[in-house]
Design brief:
The protein is α/β, with parallel strands linked by helices and 205 residues long. It is built from 7 helices and 9 strands, in the order E-H-E-E-H-E-E-H-E-H-E-H-E-H-E-H. It has one domain: 3-Layer(aba) Sandwich (Rossmann fold).
Length: 205
């Protein structure tokens, strides 16, 4: 286990706000940030977005282990680039600071033919912060994600809901899954440095 408290931010799917939540956590904790695998959008990567949204002078953005040119599942993007993602090459950065690690997509995203994102989390021995967003079907996706993490024996620090509030869905998820609510980040009109700082007030970590 890392000496410092590190968290792996994963989500119930793609496009539900993991990077924004990661930026909020990085700013609030003044932690470092690391995206192990960037698949596509290399000129507008998640690392660059987080860097553009934080204000503190303590954070270091650590380079990705894999930078893949195409915006597909990492195993497909890697194949197109003529490489194979090797888990042994994904090593936690050496830092004396806290670290927020952001995954790519959801838990069952393949990194290669036999290794999933959830396997990487297990390999790194990190507790998870799960990001959820309310939409039709999100209860199912959230509970399946919680179930998978528990089956793998991965500790869940808690859940952050991102975007429009739905008390019916959120209360059911929290009661049924028995996990801690870390916060609910409201939907931004514009994601900028001030919004990221303000959003930290909605997170208890």
């Amino acid at each position: 286990m890392p000496d410092k408290e590190h968290f792996f931010v994963t989500g119930i799917g793609t496009g539900i706000g993991k990077t924004i939540v990661s930026a909020v956590l990085v700013e609030k904790l003044k932690s470092d940030y690391w995206k192990p695998v960037q698949s596509g959008d290399l000129d507008n990567s998640d690392s660059l977005l987080v860097e553009s949204l934080i204000s503190n002078g303590h954070t270091k953005i650590h380079p990705e282990s894999y930078r893949l040119s195409e915006p597909f599942s990492p195993h497909k993007s890697a194949a197109i680039d003529g490489i194979s993602i090797k888990p042994e090459n994904i090593i936690l950065p050496d830092t004396n600071n806290k670290l927020i690690i952001e995954g790519a997509g959801g838990l069952m995203v393949p990194l290669n033919d036999k290794f999933l994102m959830i396997d990487l989390i297990k390999k790194l021995h990190l507790p998870v912060i799960l990001v959820s967003q309310n939409y039709l079907g999100s209860i199912n996706h959230t509970l399946l994600s919680v179930y998978a993490l528990k089956q793998y024996g991965i500790p869940i620090k808690g859940i952050i809901f991102n975007g429009i509030e739905d008390v019916y869905a959120e209360e059911f998820i929290l009661d049924y899954a028995g996990i801690e609510l870390l916060g609910h980040i409201p939907q931004f009109n514009k994601a900028d440095k001030k919004a990221i700082i303000d959003a930290g007030n909605y997170v208890d970590l």
